[in-house]
Specification:
Blueprint: H1 8-21, H2 44-51, H3 55-69, H4 72-92
Helix pairs in contact: 1-3, 2-3
Length: 101
């Protein structure tokens, strides 16, 4: 297990930028934005290059910030959404839906 220490001042300074640039907040085609406004979230490596930080620091900032940014109810909704999407995929795409006699 790796243990690292993130300086609270570094976290405060870069938290908002890391969250904004990451996949944590997705602004894309699903939001029905015009093509000029769509963007993908950057990887931790891309964010590190942009902010001139090392990748491990960005990963740690993002992981902590995601927990700070989203409350527990949001995580629960995300888990349920993923379960439902997987269930629907299995039933409709793979053909495992029970057929009525």
């Amino acid at each position: 297990m790796t243990f690292s220490y993130l300086d609270p001042e570094i976290y405060k300074k870069y938290r908002d930028a890391v969250i904004e640039l990451s996949n944590s907040i997705q602004v894309d085609i699903n939001e029905h934005l015009p093509p000029g406004q769509r963007r993908r979230g950057l990887s931790d490596r891309e964010i590190a290059e942009r902010l001139q930080l090392d990748e491990a620091t960005v990963t740690e900032i993002r992981a902590i910030a995601e927990r700070d940014y989203y409350d527990l109810a949001e995580w629960d909704r995300a888990i349920e959404f993923k379960r439902k999407a997987c269930r629907e995929y299995v039933e409709n795409r793979i053909g495992l839906k029970r057929k009525k006699p």
